[in-house]
Each structure stands twice: as C-alpha cells, then as structure tokens.
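Input for the complex:
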Amino acid sequence: MKTSMVWGVLILLATTYVRSQEGEPQRKVTHEVELEIAGEYRYFVDAARFEGQENHYPSIAFKPSYEASWNKGYESINFQGFLRLDRDDERTHWDIRELYYQKAKGNWEVSAGFKKVYWGVAESNHLVDVINQTDAVETFDGEEKLGQPMVQFSWITNKIGTFDLFYLPYHRKRTFAGEAGRLRFGTVLNQDDLLYESGAEEWRQDVAVRWKHYVGIVDVAVSHFYGNGREPLFAFDALGNINAFYPVINQTGLELQLTHSAFLWKLESIYRQSKIQDFFALAAGLEYTFSNIDGNGLDIGILGEYSYDERDELALNALQNDLFFGSRIALNDTADTSFLIGGLSDLDSSSKIFSLEASRRFGSTWTVEVEARVFQSIDANELILSNFQDDSFLRIAISKFF
Amino acid sequence: MKTSIFTVAAFVAFNLVSAQTAKEKGLEIAKAAEQADLGFGSSTVELKMILKNKNGQKSERTMTTKTLELIEDGDKSLIAFNSPKDVKGTSTLTYTHKVGSDDQWLYLPSIKRVKRISSNNKSGPFVGSEFAYEDLSSQEVEKYTYTFLEEKNGLLIVEQDPVDPKSGYTRRIVSYNKDKGYRLEKIEFYDRKNALLKTLTYSDYKLYKNKFWRAGTLKMVNHQSNKETLLQFAGYDFGVTYSEDDFSQVALQRAGK
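Predicted:
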C-alpha cells in the first residue's frame, strides 16, 4: 500500500466532510465505532512440503471500523481497517479495506475512496468478481478482498435496471504466502516481483461498467472491465521457474439467477481477453433449500455447481472442469448456528478438496468459527494444486466484538 | 310431514345464508382494517427483539425497519440489523406481492454481497425468534380467506385461513378492535395439526397522525415450546417521505454498508 495514496484519499475525505458540515451546521451526525478482535489457530496436519513451512500458526487480527453519517443517512464516511499478525511474515499485513465518502440522492449514488464491491451469484467459484484484488493469504476461498481505490457512480431505474460506472485509478497486487507460509508454490512468490504489462504499471487508469436488472424470477447482470487484471498470468519456463505478471485485460461477465419456489438456478460466466491469452470460463449450478424441516427452524440446503475454465491447468483457481457438491445447514437458533460442508472433485483427475465451515455465536459479543480443508488424492500433474497437496488444515477462530 | 320438510329446508337455507354472511362479514372486517390503515405512506422504526427460552434466558437483537406503502401491489420493506454486532449490517429487502411469491434480497456486509433469496420459507422462524417469516410480512387482504366468528366486548373475532399451502398454520383467530380503527389486539395461531401453537398480543398502542394505530409491544408466546419473543418498537416516524429509490438494491447495500 502506497502511503502517499492513503494520505491523498484521507485529505480528500476530510475536505468533503468539513465542507458538508459547514453547509448546514444543524445537521445531525451519527458516529459509530466498532472493533473486532479475532484470535485464530491454524493447524496443518501433514509435514511441510517446502522448506521453512510450519505446522502450527497462531494468529491474531484486528478489524476496526468507523462510520459517520448525516443527512438522514444519505451521506456518510465509512472506514474499515485490517491488521493481522502471523508466523508468516507475508500473512502479517495491514490494509485499508474501506475508507470512502458516499452520497445518495434520488435515483443515484456516488462513492469515492477505498471500497469493496462484490459481483457474482455462484458459491464455489467467483469468476465475475473483478473489482477488488483478492487478499489471498487471508482465506483459501478467495472471498477476502483488499480495499480498491475507486469512484463509483450508480444510477438506479425501476424500468431498465441499475447502471454502475467505476473509475479505478490504482491497482493492488495480490498477496502471497511468504517462505514460512503454507498454501504456496515451491518458489516463494514475492508480491513486488510481479510486474505489469502496462507501462503505467499500478497507476494505469482502469474502468468498469455493470448493468443489473430484475424481472420477476430473473436477476441478471452484465459487466465489462478494462484494465490491469486482478489475477496474475503465470508462465513456467523449462527449468520450472515462474514468470508472473499482471496483463491488461478486457473481461465481459454475465450473472444470471432464477429464483423459483425453493430453487435458485445460477450461472456466471466470463470471457477474458489479453495480448497473451483469451479464454472463456463458467460456473453453473443450483441451490435448493428444505426449510423448517423439524418445525423448529432447521434449514438444509443442497448445492451443486459445475465449473469450466478454458485455461485448463493454468486456471489459477484450479477449477478447470470440476464439480462441487455441498450442503448448507442453518439451525435458525438464537446463536445463529450454521454449517457449510462441501466437496470439490476434478473430473479430469483424482484430485478432490473437502471443506467444512461452521460458526455460531456465544453470548452477544463472541463468535466461534471452525474451518477444515482436506486435499485428497491431488494429481501430481496439477500445476497449481499439487503444491498444496500436503496443506490440509484445521482452523479455529474466536472473535470478540466491541 | 310437509311442514317438517319445509322446516328442514328452511333451516338448511338459513344456515347457508348465515355461513355466507360469516365469510362476507369476515372479509368485510379485514378490508375495513386495511382501509383504516390506508395512506400511511412510509414509516421507519427502531425495533428491539427480546428472545426468551424456556429457562428464561434472554438474548437481544435490534434492527431498523423502513416500510413504503404501495396501493396496487404489496408494500416494500427494508430491515437492517444493528445488533448482535457480528450480524450488524445484515439486511433484507422485500417486495411483497398481493398474489404470488414475494421478491426478497439479502445483503451480507462482510463480503458486500447482495443475494436474491427464496421467499418460499414462510413457516420458519425469523432469526431464531418465535415469529415466523409469514408473521412479519406485510399483511395483505388477499393472503387469507375469512370467517367472522363473534363479537365480544367490542372485539370482532375473525378466523383467517391462509391461502398459501406453504403457511405453517391451518388458521389464525384474530381479534380486531372496531372502535380503535380496527387495530389488532390478539392473534391465536393453530399449527398444521390444528393445535394451538402461539398467541400474539399487541399492547402499548399509540395513535400516529390522528389515524394510524401502532403497537409499541408485541408479545408472542409459543405454547408448545414455552419460549417467547417480545418486540419493542421505539419511535415510529411517519414524517419520513420515502420513495421507491429508498427500496432499491443499491439502498439495501447502503443500509447495511
């Protein structure tokens, strides 16, 4: 994170804040300050595959947040910080997840600053979601994101849907595990070693648009992104050395969901073009929920999703021709107890990944999360996954909210 | 002989007429209640939910609810959780329809995701409480058939049978207060086996804008599990003027941040 960038945004926010305060001093400002402290323990069952890796990873994360809102909530400043301390120097990191000013008026909304935006409908694969960089050291499922500097403009209509325009002035590099970290390649990738195709490097001025609409049971979105790719492109030379860089990409995405009785039918798909590589990928599937089975609130959902990626073995997420089956169980009790169990199977090889995620609340300010990932029969020929074959782990996290 | 046949026929006819009248009168009351609450426009309210298990242990959650009244179709509503803190920002947006399934979206603030969800689950509990989703959704006249039962101490007692087969109830026995703008005083819920499941009582009523009665406290007691849930509404605000723009998916994300 470039410090100058942060200060720039801070000053911009401060000026906007002061200005809007001066305008109408009688306006009521609501402040909210929160802090989550999360203690975490990851235990990797198998002996390390690469030198320097450990089995036990105690860790702690701090997640402060602040919100000031006024003008009946139509204007606000939002901050969410992140700091983790871990045995792996690269997983020890901090970030500004969010720091933005937002104003809404009538049928439009504008946000400026560091922000997170989510696109997509699938559960096991996130293809379309291209605005934020993945904080890959944080979670295996890739759902943790780094804050992205942006100006976002939304125009909302009832008849023809919502249009989002994004101006993305700065690219964030993906985080990778360090030498002491698990879930990495044999060669330690340093964030800074990854270069850009674009001469403007991280300061390339990128843009994106998205249209989203809903008619009856159909939710649909089409998006286009033009700029520095969030996923690095990997090239391997004859000696097995990795050459990785961020290409300039044009990516068109489609999201489609049909919601009919207890069925959710989902499709998300992308076509990505760059100088070196053009490819198509999709994830499609369904979710069905048996609700209130016992008359006591027990919901059991079943999930099935298929993923295809034309990049084949170079697909970074290793979902080139895979089937995911899972079940989401919610007790709907006062502690919000829930489970997500799943299995991902590669249709071209023996590789399988099993996962379990469970969480519940204790009292009103504590939560406990348990996560397990098991890599089984990973095919030695898998370019990416084979590196993780000994990285099955169990993670337990306890959070306290202030 | 002739006389007795005539008598029986007359008795049957009378019964048919009165049965129809009971249905008509039930519907009439439901419509009168809807009419009495017409024109509130939009409102916002802070809501505290106190869940009590059978051992008396309590847990609390708070949320903000915004409602937009629509005449031709069902109302639109936005609920945002404020506590417990781990679910702060979790929000739902519901477009109620008079006929057919409601449209519903869920916002998950941790990953900033908006997800269209199925509104199929009517009978399931809302966040672990004794209120089912269907108890909290906008009460449109079209969602029940009605039978007037009796008038007792100024209260009109009407049986309501849900039209939707996915409802968790065979019937609800509803008490309307005729002199107080047909406001609800009590609802008894009968489960699918026609056994008394829950009783909901309304109290601490206040009159807003000289027309709209709103209860400050709703108490739901589950007779089968001995659990109860208290809903406390603080400060209804009818002064707000929301438009459909405040009930978009963009507004849903803004409410949850």
